[in-house]
Amino acid sequence: MTRTRTSGAGPLAGVRVVELAGIGPGPFAAMLLADLGADVVRVDRPGGPGLAIDPAHDVTNRNKRSVIVDLKAPGGPARVLDLAERADVLVEGYRPGVAERLGVGPEACHARNPRLVYGRMTGWGQDGPLAQRAGHDIGYIALTGTLGMIGAHDGPPAVPANLLGDYAGGSLYLVVGILAALHHARATGTGQVVDAAIVDGAAHLSTMIHGMLAAGSWQDRRGSNLLDGGCPFYGTYETADGGHMAVGALEPRFYAEFTDLLGIPGTAPARDDPARWPELREAIAARFKSRTRDEWAAVFADSDACVAPVLSLREAPHHPHLAARATFTAHGGITQPAPAPRFSATPTAVRTGPARPGADADSVARDWDLPKPPTDTPGPPAAVPETPADAPAPAPSARETPQ
User: Fold this and answer.
1) Which helix (H) or strand (E) holds 354?
2) Which of 184, 200, 201 is nearest to 192 (CA)?
3) Helices in 74-189 by DSSP H: which ranges?
């Protein structure tokens, strides 16, 4: 069957992806594939996943289509296997062993489609002592040492939302693995399983820091190093109006411009003497407290001092640089980050808004040459009930998912 490649749809146009629904890093990874042009079909469960937001606002489901399948009902697994047979990639975020018990694990899928790339998104991984334990982003990054790096030296670790674990250590590593395995499958005709664990990805993100630690140039305590807020010219400072400025003037020439524009040239303590860093920090902090955030932003706007205002989520889309690059876009009344990265020959776009559960059963059946879904297929959920622990679990951030 010839697959249509639409101009402007992205570099993955023609690639088919089945996403077994969950929340968190699995859906985000599938969104990234969809943003890049893949035809992503999300298999939603009756009732929806736990901890879900209103489907109309869940932009991690943009550029996708949705069907509803009850994997515990007779014929449910067969419908997923029909999709897997026609797909290039399948993404799931269940407890280890759950997909196998439901009849849609790698062995069953590869029996129907040996070329399939089977992507598994978990927090703890498919094996190891914690593989069957429930977890969330914060616990995964805690054990890898990355959470312990973040925050002031005299306070508790600062929680970086769920960006560092779920999305950086999880989603992005899953997508890298899927694309590498897809390349291998196209070269050899053989698919494989991608075991993407947040603990592995989050640990991998700290590779440079481990090298610095081994070299003796990094102290194993937070808020005491060049890049963790311990250095007074790499951190954040409060302004007169309660805003903040971010300073990253590491190189000497950028630091010289920074101190000049800040108004402390020649009077600041030596930057290369860590013993005087507390004194230097006080001098910098006092100057920043003398003006508002926007006043300081204007001072540093056209400089190489590596200083920027700390913007809120609602402010960021209006920054002149981000607006000029269209880093954010509006679709369906929702302002959201635009697809990234960018491609010269196969540009990407937000093509459709969030997929509504079950809304695309007919079009998926037609386009994927599937049997028409039964007329009693459940419609979109009216409520979001708790999901039993042995049900197809949401992706790693879900309460009951041991990842």
Assistant:
1) none
2) 184
3) 76-86, 98-102, 106-112, 137-143, 172-188
Question: What 3-state DSSP class applies to 44?
Answer: strand
Beta-carbon contacts of residue 319 (< 8 Å; ≥ 6 apart): 311
Which residue among the candidates 35, 88, 136, 200 is catalytic per the annotation? 136
SS3 percent helix, strand, coil of the chain, rounded to 5, is: 35, 15, 50
Q: How far apart are CA 131 and CA 113, in angstroms?
A: 27
Active site residue 166: yes
Q: Please list, in sequence order, all residues whose beta carbon lies within 8 angstroms of the beta carbon of residue 112, skipping any fewer than 6 positions away.
A: 81, 84, 85
For the chain, 403 residues long, give each residue's pLDDT as a single digit of tens.
334 444 448 999 999 999 999 989 999 999 999 999 999 999 999 987 656 688 899 999 999 999 999 999 999 999 999 999 999 999 999 999 999 999 999 999 999 999 999 999 999 999 999 999 999 999 999 999 999 999 999 999 999 999 999 999 999 999 999 999 999 999 999 999 999 999 999 999 999 999 999 999 999 999 999 999 999 999 999 999 999 999 999 999 999 999 999 999 888 888 989 999 999 999 999 999 999 999 999 999 999 999 999 999 999 999 999 999 999 999 999 999 999 999 999 999 999 999 999 999 999 999 999 976 555 444 444 333 333 333 334 333 333 343 4
pTM, two decimals, is 0.89
3-state secondary structure of 365: helix
Q: What is the DSSP letter of 210?
A: H
Active site residue: 35, 44, 82, 166, which one? 166
Known active-site residue 136: yes
Residue 315 phi, psi dihedral angles, 5° rounding = -80, -35
Q: Which residues pair with 54 in a beta bridge?
A: none
